[in-house]
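New to this. Comment on this protein:
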Amino acid sequence: MSSKAMAEFIGTFILVFFGVGSAVLMGAEIGFHGIALAFGLSIVAAAYGFGVISGAQLNPAVSLGFLTSGRLSMAEFLVYCVAQILGAIAAAGVIYVIASGKADYSLVENGLGQNGWGAGYNGGYNLNSALIFEFVATFLFVTVILGATQSDAPLGFGGLAIGLTLTGIHLVGIDVTGVSVNPARSIAPALFVGGQAMEQLWLFIAAPLAGGLLAGVLHGAGITRSPHVR
């Protein structure tokens, strides 16, 4: 495995372990605000830890944005996506093993931080709400990432800006979908939980990828890119 692939694997592991782990292991104690902060801090940690190696994209939707903006090759995109998904699955597996050590934990009853919508899931928002939120939130997230990592962006602040943006997105949308904006983050717990989580997984792949695609196209066209970057 290349150093970039390993960085994406470990970085995505950090994202899912901190973020999803906080929801599964500490959700009742820290609530939505704490979970939002955990996701944001995970991005900050991974960005400063692995950004210099791979860019710490940690998300197929982000990598798609880099691809369509011309800042990532197709070969790198495919490698990144595989590494990100595997890293997320590994983290979800570790969280499941830890959670299973609690006597009253049940995968069926308690879940594994999977995304979803509809009756019985968080605020009970419908399909349209979930679709719109995931598309818009991912578009905004990837737009911020592309801007914060362009060559003339202020040095040293990209990871912080990206982490704070993800925190804000979670503060807005946890009650809607649990917040994906990242197909890898959604695929991992759904594989363990199955059932409705797998049935609804298509949205958490399609909507984030569409949002990332649009962000990348606009950035590549210079619409959301600094005029000083060529």
